[in-house]
Amino acid sequence: MLMRTDPFRDLDRFAQQVFGAGTWSKPASMPMDAYRAGDEFVVCFDLPGVDPGAVELDVERNVLTVKAERRPLPTGDDVRMHVSERRLGVFSRRLFLGDTLDTEHITANYDAGVLTVRIPVAEKAKPRRIEIDGAGDRKQIHA
């Protein structure tokens, strides 16, 4: 049998039921890391306990939306819940992507409770050389 270690947990649950998302309850969240690796932008979302079939990834214009649902565990007459701390329900997060990202070639992978989204940098945003015409020698510089 599991023992509770937080004496205020029941008070927190009661406050959440009565007042909704009040000062005692933490909002449902989808923690993420985002970084650039070479010519792609990588975003990792923590979604522990979420079935891969319950994850939706949409992009419209320059807005990437991640929606996931953590469903309750199966219950029955012989099941008695002793502790229920994991948040259930629908979680969503929106990212506003810059024009320098190629939203046509986004890829996603879900492994070990982490959704990894890779967004390539658009060709027009990559550094390129521009030739300069002038009197004398042709020179190249970085733009």
Automatic annotation (TrEMBL):
Residues 23-135 form the SHSP domain. Pfam families: HSP20. InterPro entries: A-crystallin/Hsp20_dom (IPR002068), HSP20-like_chaperone (IPR008978), Small_HSP (IPR031107). PROSITE patterns: SHSP. It comes from the Bacteria. Keywords: Stress response. The keyword Kinase does not apply. Belongs to the small heat shock protein (HSP20) family. This is Heat shock protein. It comes from Amycolatopsis vancoresmycina DSM 44592. The lineage of its organism: Bacteria, Bacillati, Actinomycetota, Actinomycetes, Pseudonocardiales.
